[in-house]
């Protein structure tokens, strides 16, 4: 089968979106490292790798359906962040945008009667549900820790634990 031009273009935009998320989370990871937040660094670095994997999955799909994946020019993400709390709020907001973007792709695939792409995108629907749930957990924990004198220490410990849980779940064959 051959994919329509419209669908191909939309998937190429998603490639760029996932690529940007990968770079954004990498930049956030580096900033956290510069603040001594090693747990946050590990968590965000893994999220960045995940986004790269999301991007590459679309490359592979387009190759399968006789489309052409475009390697995107990625705009530079911010280098500085206001606080670690602001970083994770931004990650959650970004994930919500990605979910909307996946939903739009599915609407287009439906319009185009493109059943293969609809099926392909189901993986992303599940992934987004999991990622949004994980980020809500992160924000809940940050809120519970509050902003007492050692809050950064406890937030970092918590992120380390959440990261290790995600790594273990991946190793067990589940999705993080
Ligand atoms: Fe690929 Fe986290 O969206």
Could you please describe the fold and organization of this structure?
With 176 residues, the chain is mainly α. The protein has a single domain (5-171), classed as Ferritin, CATH 1.20.1260. It contains five helices and no strands. It has helices spanning 5-34, 38-64, 84-111, 115-145, 151-171. Helix 1 runs antiparallel to helix 3 and helix 4 (115-145) packs antiparallel against helix 5. 30% of the residues are buried. The model has no long low-confidence stretch (mean pLDDT 96). The structure holds MU-OXO-diiron. MU-OXO-diiron (FEO) is lined by residues 18, 21, 51, 54, 95, 98, 131. Residues 18, 21, 51, 54, 95, 98, 131 line the site of MU-OXO-diiron (FEO).
Question: Brief overview, please?
Answer:
The protein is mostly helical. Helix content is 78%, strand content 0%. The protein is built from 5 helices and no strands.
Quickly list its features:
single chain, 176 residues, mainly alpha, Ferritin, 5 helices, binds MU-OXO-diiron
| Terminal CA distance | 32 Å
CATH level-3 fold name: Ferritin
Domain unit count: 1
Approximately how much helix is present in the residues?
Answer: over 70%
CATH superfamily: Ferritin, core subunit, four-helix bundle
| Biggest β-sheet description | none
CATH class: Mainly Alpha
What proportion strand? under 5%
Class of secondary structure makeup = mainly alpha
Number of helices: 5
Identify every distinct bound molecule in the structure, by name, code or SMILES: MU-OXO-diiron
Rg to the nearest angstrom?
17 Å
Low-confidence segments, given as residue ranges, are none
Corresponding CATH architecture:
Up-down Bundle
Order of helices and strands: HHHHH
Strand element count:
0
What would you call the shape?
Answer: elongated
Average pLDDT metric = 96
